[in-house]
């Protein structure tokens, strides 16, 4: 119904000619809206002295701008615009990714309101920086040109570097920020060098032109191109926190303010994946054989390293950091399969994962106090007896990340979709699928441990009373649980929405040229 | 009766209703807990409410006995609704002779299990009962699912409530036992998930929408290699659940640590899900592999080892609950023998055994729970001579134990007899070996009986035990009736499972030959 409404509004099927400035502006209008809103808010933030009340106002303003952009994105996506060749893509995949980013943004800012008040962080810019990071992500999702992609990536990364270290009084936070900055800069160098080599080999930075030239000149064994692709892969692997390029993630996740950790786990990962899959499928689909094995191993190693190391963590933030690495491995399975379903499977997974992650971090935030952050697993002992609602919500989030049907809601369908993609591929990824479920079994060890201590251990006698749950955290937790459970029974709408991304059809070679049925 | 049910259009709504009633009930109980709090009165309401819901469930389900066409081996009472259209998964439920008895067993045992835990569960009563109701939905869902996706979802849905029931309301080592139970089952069933996705994608055809419908997958022509691995995945999932011999180690822990109702459900119903999985999925889908000579022999050998090993371990248990738990390993070994021996009699016997074991072992766990509540010890040596103090308890325990042994006149005899005459035709030597299991069963159960309820009454604290009260008697009587009825006049039950058993045997036989022929050509 909504769709027909927008169709009647005249936008239906409009094909944008991106060489015309007017149409290009249209194509990036939601991004411009967010960027402009963020700049105005930045001025407003500097208008008054730092204070708790001002921090709150700016946060509400930022959430407002985020929601407004969300509405704009949905409106544009329903208008059915298409585009010709150009530096940005106008397609369902982009809009669907934007929805994930903006959702994570609004939630992270909401959680920051509670968290910053508790930790005495009064810098109002913190919230605006989240918006800027999101601008970068939206550009990444839109980019159809390696230079535009780089622009978005840097906008995002620089903002997030600052956000990680926003708590100036915490040494851990500073350590995390420095580590993230150094390794981030390092990985950017890989990425840039990769872009340069790919440009050198193909003479273009535009993804569809790169893809076209690789196909036309059958450049499958050009060393310059292959080295470029390899460097790009390393650069992306850093951003995705795929093993063995994941070393920064746990320290950064642990050191960063908790809402920012949630934001990074959900949105930054989503942005990296959105850009990654577009580059890989649009530009390098033709040399599938060249990168298949590398990605296969990356995926396999990542899921086992992430989940095995997570087993040993006793700090929940750190545990979730490693589990996030494990999820990267699962998502890479869908990229490795490279079918027309890969993009939508990843979007669906990211949507479910964002809800579960945001909810889980919201629970952690709402247990902590200024002097007792309550991030260790022991702090969750017997939570059920004291705060049954929080414990049940946390159990839902844990089971969702574990991928358990019904009680874990969407999490199961996310894994299901990835499995289906892997097995439906022209070259079925049976071994990867089996490894995925084995890694999932390992992950049960730590997700269930959290559930177990909450429900089956007694509350320690001398445990200080828990604080009241902040209003924003409560809202986030409830919304996440409800959405996870409802879509966990009826995922149809989300699948359809994620299928908006299926225009991103890989430019794949014929099935005969694919490597053997089960990988290396 | 059949006409009356038809006038209600019974078959069109019964299966969805069976799934909806407990779920709605779980929400109601949970909501009541949220409103009414933790008081004693509220707890009593929760128990009564749950009991009422489960009795309603049983009363509603009993119509299946008449409404099904006993001559037909097809799916009946089928309800088919779209679920997740884009993935081709549907909400399709149906029953046939294989599953209808399991459904009735479940709906019969559930209210009895609730009654069995009436006084022993004292903390978080609402959560406990809500989980019990969810568990009911999960178990029934597995038995009625006709769509493999639904089957898997329901298979996993059972797991979480049982995990919490063992882990929160269980015995001393409950955390260890619940985690072991969960991880074992989940690890095995995730491989089944991969197999199900693979089958669905194959059945959908290239570029087509996957389909998980049972019949569509049954009609698939798979390569021998694919069949082999897929059978392996299903075998693992079901063998852990049964549990077959090397995969059984979760069972004693889970059964012993679970609260009484949990043990009753574990032994009575959950284990049958494994053998049901073999009957419904693993063997019919991949007959060429399941009946491949060495695969079949290996499974039967494992089953016979299970019988002997389970019995021998039960013989030396000082703990009565553990003894009953190990006796389950032995009994389920018989069921597996019956299924893989693949004659109509042996499969019928296996089905009878599944029902009968549900009743008699369920009753044994209830009885153990009843006496444990009074004495707080499960060690056989702490009893002795209590027949003089609690004659009613002793009588019922004796009858149930005899049915578990397989005394003529009880259900156990009919089942074991059928399995053995059926299996003797295909595997004579192994059947003879497994028959020693019956002798061992008599040894461990009768010896335990002797030490518990006969012998001299030498412990003073046993002299003041209370005998069964009306609630306990009331919950045991339906089981006793079932035990004797199925022992003396098993024909109605046998009739209802015969068509399905016959179809199972014939189709597996035929398809196995065809598939094995292609295997020879293909050279596995």
What does this structure look like?
The complex is a heterodimer of chains A (about 525) and B (about 525). Chain A has helices at about 1-10, 20-25, 30-45, 50-80, 90-120, 125-140, 145-165, 170-200, 205-215, 225-240, 250-255, 260-285, 290-310, 315-335, 340-365, 385, 390-400, 410-425, 430-455, 470-490, 490-500, and strands at about 15, 80-85. By secondary structure, chain A is mainly alpha-helical. A two-stranded parallel sheet of chain A has the order 1-2. In chain A, helix 11 packs antiparallel against helix 12 (about 260-285) and helix 14 (about 315-335) runs antiparallel to helix 15 (about 340-365). The longest helix of chain A has about 30 residues, at about 170-200. Chain A starts with a helix and ends in a 21-residue tail after the last helix. Chain B has about 525 residues and is mainly alpha-helical. Chain B contains 22 helices and 2 strands. Chain B has a two-stranded antiparallel ribbon. In chain B, a hairpin with a 4-residue loop joins strand 1 and strand 2 (about 90-95). The model of chain B has no long low-confidence stretch (mean pLDDT about 90). Chains A and B meet through helix 18, helix 19 and helix 21 of A and helix 7, helix 8 and helix 9 of B.
